[in-house]
């Protein structure tokens, strides 16, 4: 009987060893490594400003611009003179943009009442790779009958695009 007990113990030990080897053969540790990269690029910018419809005798100067600002200097000679500036905006990035805010504020308090500004709006949606334009027209008021004492008037415009 002792021999049988020894035989049973040895058999159980062998079965346990086989189960341990079997478990380790079917147990696998998985390792996961990952990297995320942002590839989108935000690049909404001014790419051109040009004068159009310049009245005879007026001077549009040489408009200047950077990626984020544009400057022009109009010289109007007589009532009715006007100059229209066309500003081109491009979305050179890979992220679509939408127009969030736009304000054009002429300095009416300190500027000449004889100078009027009118503007148009650029596109509300500017998808990646697209361009849009808007205009700023400056005009010497045709109804002016006297040369004003204040002869200048500035306008400030803010055009804000955000991620669509």
Concise summary:
The protein has 164 residues and is α+β, with helices and mostly antiparallel strands. The protein is built from one helix and nine strands.
Q: Evaluate the radius of gyration.
A: 37 Å
- Helix/strand class: alpha+beta
Strand content range = 35-45%
Q: What count of domains describes the coordinates?
A: 1
- Tell me the number of helical segments per DSSP (H or I, 4 or more residues long): 1
Query: Looking at the chains present, what oligomeric state does this protein adopt?
Result: single chain
Bin the helical content. 10-25%
E-strand count:
9
Spatial gap, N to C terminus: 85 Å
Topology as H/E string?
HEEEEEEEEE
Q: How would you describe the shape?
A: rod-shaped
Description of the structure:
The protein is an alpha+beta fold and 164 residues long. It has one domain. The protein is built from one helix and nine strands, in the order αβββββββββ. The chain has one helix at 2-26; strands at residues 44-52, 64-65, 70-71, 82-91, 97-106, 115-119, 125-126, 131-140, 155-163. The strands form three sheets. The protein has a four-stranded antiparallel β-sheet, with no helix packed on it. It has a three-stranded antiparallel β-sheet with strand order 7-5-9, with no helix packed on it. A hairpin with a 4-residue loop joins strand 2 (64-65) and strand 3 (70-71). The radius of gyration is 37 Å and the shape is rod-shaped.
């Amino acid at each position: 009987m002792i021999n049988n007990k020894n035989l049973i113990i040895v058999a159980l030990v062998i079965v346990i060893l086989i189960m341990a080897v079997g478990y380790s053969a079917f147990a696998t540790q998985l390792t996961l490594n990952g990297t995320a990269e942002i590839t989108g690029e935000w690049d909404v910018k001014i790419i051109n400003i040009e004068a159009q419809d310049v009245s005879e005798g007026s001077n549009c100067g040489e408009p200047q611009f950077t990626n984020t600002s544009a400057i022009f200097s109009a010289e109007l000679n007589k009532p009715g003179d006007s100059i229209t500036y066309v500003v081109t905006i491009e979305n050179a990035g890979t992220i679509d943009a939408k127009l969030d805010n736009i304000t054009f504020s002429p300095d009416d308090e300190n500027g000449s009442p004889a100078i009027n500004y009118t503007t148009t709006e650029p596109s509300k949606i500017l998808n990646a790779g697209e361009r849009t334009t808007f205009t700023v027209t400056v005009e010497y008021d045709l109804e002016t009958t006297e040369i004003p004492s204040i002869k200048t008037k500035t306008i400030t415009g803010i055009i804000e695009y955000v991620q669509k």
